[in-house]
Predict the 3D structure of the following.
Amino acid sequence: MSELIAAIATPPGTGGVGILRLSGPGAAQAAAHIFQPLGKTPLSEAPDRQLLYGRVFDQAGDLLDTGLAFVSRAPHSYTGEETAEIQCHGSPVVLSLALDALCAAGARLARPGEFTQRAFLNGKLDLTQAEAVIDLIDAETPAAARQAAGQLNGALSRQIDGIYSALTDLMAHFCAVLDYPDEDIDPFQAEQMGQILARQEAALQALLATSRRGTLLHQGITCVLIGRPNAGKSSLLNALAGYERAIVTNIPGTTRDTVETKVTLGGYLFRLVDTAGLRDSDDPIEQLGVARSRQALAEADLVLAVCDGTQPLTEEDHDLLREALAQADTILLANKRDLTDFTLPQPAANDAPNTLTVIPLSAKTGDGLDTLETTLARRAETLLPQAAQSAAGELLTNQRQIQAAQRALDGVTHAKDALDLGMTPDALLTDVEAALEALGELTGRTVREDITARIFSRFCVGK
Ligand code: GDP
């Protein structure tokens, strides 16, 4: 039987309102212990989800605050258990004394994510929906929040459930055939099975195709800054991030490792990565930096090649540009526009001058950053088409989901190939079972406990 848990659900610090949550057997009683409504009905006897106004008391029975409270009985609550919530003023002292009083009334402190974990264990949410809760809390852009809200609403679960149920029906067919082991699958049945497998294969492929958009939305578009030492990469990263994240000095080669920061520009989330440079060097530390920079470049969705506009482009600038263009969509940023000897750089014939966007700007004064922001937003739209937003909630957004969906696809493809080759039903059965197992992991039907523990550890206390 689960224990009674309690937590402060609002963030630390002061605020207008602070909320205490309880879940588990005896939640209403424990809450009633510290909350007395002004009306006659005690909180423990109040109808479900009816807000009552009353007084909040501490462990010694002294008045702490006035506020609102409600109870919700199993199974009609977030966790599926008996729950109670008390809303006080958002004072850390009041909330902590009230929490002590709840613990004295029989509750223990909740672990991070324990409320949502109970909701999952009680079948209120599947695992993709539980992940959506934390994604929604952590969302850094409106698009990421919309995606998480859709997923929480079951958009992804419904898709997976559709595939799961079609494959379960197919299993029933196989099992029926297996009862007559001497007979082959008759051609008509085999064709029908093949069609079902092909449809589910296509559905899983479509789902997996969403993962790039999902990852970009969730982790941000990786935008790598490259350029010769002193071009102004760190200054630009800081200007875009709006705070001092990288060390800016006028000694070439200060940034020896990659430095990254997340920023929202034009409504899109970007992961800006400042690199150490790509110059070959004898210094082992610099070599390490160069290796990291190359790695960053290989992972880039976009490259910002920064050059010092007060100097003509050098051979090194051209080499960097070509290397960047070979990897990803590249924008040339001509920095230090505020200086009088600034001139717009002339890309060489090999630098794809016809398609290369050149933006003059000054990381120091901020001049031209608005043009850069608009350009980045436009590139983001290409990487994250509008469709990603209309299908809110139907994207795979993390590696756990992607890997499980891939395993399900592998199982279905194997089964389809085996059927085409005329393999026996028992061989097909194993493949479809593997696919079902992977889908079960995706939604949490058959997931291992250590995996769920890892997911819920990302949560905050009180959620
Ligand atoms: P990095 O080596 O490419 O990361 O270059 P930094 O960002 O460290 O900048 C090198 C030097 O150029 C520093 O002294 C900066 O203050 C200066 N700097 C960077 N951007 C600008 C700019 O837009 N205008 C001017 N005048 N100086 C800049």
In short: DSSP finds 16 helices and 13 strands in the chain.
